[in-house]
Amino acid sequence: MKKKKILYCFIFARGGSKGIKNKNLVKLNGKPLLFYSINLAKKIKSIKKIFVSTDNKAIAEYAKKNKAEVIKRPKKLSQDNSYEIDAWKHAIKFLKKKKIFFDIFLSLPTTSPLRNKNDVITSLKMLNKKKTDIVLTGTKSKRNPWFNMAMKKKNGFYKIINNNKKTIYNRQKAPNVIDLTTVAYVADVSYILKAKSYFDGNVKVNLIPSVRAVDIDDKNDLYYANYLLKIKK
Predict the structure, then answer these.
(1) What residues contact 153, with CB distance under 8 A and at least 6 apart?
(2) What's the pTM value of the predicted model, to 2 decimals?
């Protein structure tokens, strides 16, 4: 009989943020952003435990109040230039030291509060496909590096970001690209521990409609998310 894999959910919520002060606890439709990730995780029956990794006391207290367990995140992994995957590895190793083992890692960032349960379940199912190491989420991109994305050269003039032997004049002929989102990250625990980046292995992407993939990075994103929640009612 095949062993059933254990799934744990993680929410990585550091205290510092530049775009929005105390972003992880900022209110969206009357509730902190952290609420939406914890609340959605509770709705997915296959999730056995919910952990919040943070360096912030207020975030830790809110997590405990909402029945999530807390992992103390080191300050060195809580900086603006810290790599997210390093925080993932820390959380996994932290639990291993406590003899807490699991097979599937799920991260639900607070910055995608408009995701729904099916978005996450679809990503979980995609991980079960043959040889898949990690499942990211994305939306269809409105910009394309082969067609309408440019960068400034040292001489002050601009050039298209990705050069092609044959000049591309319209979006239809440009290679398809996507924008990665923070709706969900699903991966095998063993893959995270050995990977240096998301793209070191076999990567699949779950495409999410843009209205459910708003990434809260600044106040404009927050206003837009508030608007979408209001018209949804």
Answers:
(1) 159
(2) 0.91
